[in-house]
């Protein structure tokens, strides 16, 4: 089976380095599925889950808060602003962050809307990643 | 006995100094471990983004950013990373010397230089040699954040964008191991294409959403991460150099104490001998 070399790095650490058969990620425009032999691609990514399809048929899920993705035919590099293994996400904290963002959004109109919206998007992306993780486990 | 009172005082003061230097050595050793960890953690990102950028520089993008186009060089910019504090051996001096040598070469070719300085130590030095300093980021501290550096980086990038400098270099210390730190000067702008054979043919990325926005964002992130990583690495170098410098100082103090003690004992013995001689000759005279 054709494979890809994959590297996931965040500003703080290298999270994954190895061989995969494909990955799916949310690009700035929409969902992306990268398979081996993909044409060179450079894109921004949105906060959300990054799913790696491993060689043994298993999957590994990461959470990325945004960043850049470079695709070359033989390898992909994901430069995340911050990234976590999905298992390390804290469900309660994500829920709380979302509620906080929601409250902030309703309260104020004058403080920076875009900032709050970004907070909100990030919190929701975390929750989506967790849902994905749960669904896979079942 | 009054003999050698001054020497005794001197020994005491050297011992006090030794206590201070050995304490500083231990502080530096523990800080070194932390700064090294931080450096190691940041390394993968800065290396990866550098390789992405070098691929990008090799491609033939539909949109050529100013950062990717080489111009005729009339004026260059240097970002020099120094430590905030001294007492770290030749760390800063070696780096400054390397930069000054390059400045002299450029000067001989009639190229002028603008400087962006990071850390407290670079400012006074480059001002004293009459460098044209356009940005200073002092007091970055032991845990620098990108936010502290962004302003100064911006000044240098704007200078490049509006054409007042045509090349940008980054000078900092590279951490090899605890004993060795090497000053290096790397070119940041315009981008350096990678030498890999596989990327020589004519090709381009697919860009999403669009090339200009994406490349601009990526380049900015790249430059920030390179400067940030250099500052972090320089921090690790500083602590390592400080530890070695303080270790040497402690050892030198030990040597000095030994020598002083020998002189003191000689003097004391001479005094005793003389006293005995006096008593004996006194007794003989009676």
Provide the number of structural domains of chain A. Answer: 2
The name of the CATH superfamily of the largest domain in chain B reads ATP synthase, F1 complex, gamma subunit
Strand content of chain B: 5-15%
Tally of individual helices of chain A: 2
Mean pLDDT of chain A: 84
Largest sheet of chain B: 5 strands, mixed
Number of helices of chain B: 5
* Morphology call of chain B: elongated
CATH class wording of the largest domain in chain B: Alpha Beta
CATH fold-type name of the largest domain in chain B: Pyruvate Kinase, Chain: A, domain 1
| Rg of chain A (CA only) | 16 Å
CATH architecture descriptor text of the largest domain in chain B: 3-Layer(aba) Sandwich
- The oligomerization state is heterodimer
Q: Class by helix and strand content of chain B?
A: alpha/beta
What would your notes on this structure say?
With 138 residues, chain A is α+β, with helices and mostly antiparallel strands. Helices cover 30% and strands 41% of the residues of chain A. Chain A folds into two domains: 83 residues, F0F1 ATP synthase delta/epsilon subunit, N-terminal (ATP Synthase, domain 1, Sandwich), CATH 2.60.15; 49 residues. Chain A contains two helices and nine strands; from the N terminus they run E-E-E-E-E-E-E-E-E-H-H. In chain A, strands 1, 2, 3, 4, 5, 6, 7, 8 and 9 form a nine-stranded mixed sheet that branches. In chain A, helix 1 packs antiparallel against helix 2. The longest helix of chain A is centred in the C-terminal third of the chain and has 25 residues. Chain A is globular, with a radius of gyration of 16 Å. Chain B has two domains: 48 residues; 218 residues, 3-Layer(aba) Sandwich (Pyruvate Kinase, Chain: A, domain 1). In chain B, 59% of the residues lie in helices and 14% in strands. In chain B, helix 1 packs antiparallel against helix 5 and helix 4 crosses helix 5. Strand 4 of chain A pairs parallel with strand 6 of chain B.
């Amino acid at each position: 089976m054709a494979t890809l070399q994959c590297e996931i790095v965040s500003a703080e650490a290298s999270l994954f380095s190895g061989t995969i058969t494909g990955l799916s990620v949310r690009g700035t425009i929409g969902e992306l599925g990268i398979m081996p032999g993909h044409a060179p691609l450079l894109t921004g990514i949105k906060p959300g889950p990054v799913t790696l399809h491993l060689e043994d048929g298993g999957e590994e899920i990461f959470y990325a808060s945004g960043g850049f993705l470079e695709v070359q035919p033989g390898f992909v590099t994901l430069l995340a602003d911050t990234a976590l293994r999905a298992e390390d996400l804290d469900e309660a904290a994500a829920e709380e962050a979302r509620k906080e963002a929601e409250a902030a959004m309703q309260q104020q109109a004058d403080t920076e809307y875009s900032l709050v919206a970004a907070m909100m998007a990030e919190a929701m992306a975390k929750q989506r990643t967790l849902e994905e993780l749960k669904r896979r486990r079942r | 006995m009054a003999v050698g009172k001054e020497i005794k005082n001197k020994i005491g003061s050297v011992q006090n100094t030794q206590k201070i230097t050995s304490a500083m050595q231990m502080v530096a050793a523990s800080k070194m471990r932390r700064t090294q960890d931080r450096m190691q953690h940041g390394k993968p990102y800065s290396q990866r983004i550098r390789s992405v950028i070098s691929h990008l520089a090799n491609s033939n993008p539909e949109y050529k950013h100013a950062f990717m186009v080489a111009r005729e060089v009339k004026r260059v910019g240097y970002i020099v990373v120094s430590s905030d504090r001294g007492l770290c051996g030749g760390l800063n001096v070696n780096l400054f010397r390397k930069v000054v040598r390059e400045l002299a070469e450029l000067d001989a070719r009639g190229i002028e230089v603008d400087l962006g300085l990071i850390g407290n130590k670079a400012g006074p030095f480059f001002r004293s040699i009459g460098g044209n300093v356009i940005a200073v980021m002092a007091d970055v501290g032991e845990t620098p954040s990108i936010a502290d550096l962004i302003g100064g980086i911006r000044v240098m990038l704007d200078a490049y964008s509006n054409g007042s400098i045509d090349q940008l270099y980054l000078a900092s210390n590279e951490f090899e191991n605890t004993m060795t730190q090497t000053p290096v000067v790397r070119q940041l702008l315009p981008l350096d294409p990678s030498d890999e054979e596989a990327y020589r043919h004519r090709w381009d990325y697919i860009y999403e959403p669009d090339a200009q926005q994406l490349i601009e964002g990526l380049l900015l992130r790249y430059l920030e991460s390179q400067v940030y990583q250099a500052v972090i690495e320089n921090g690790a170098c500083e602590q390592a150099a400080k530890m070695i410098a303080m270790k040497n100082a402690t050892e030198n103090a030990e040597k000095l104490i030994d020598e002083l003690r020998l002189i003191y004992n000689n003097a004391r013995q001479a005094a005793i001998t003389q006293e005995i001689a006096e008593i004996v000759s006194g007794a003989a005279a009676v």
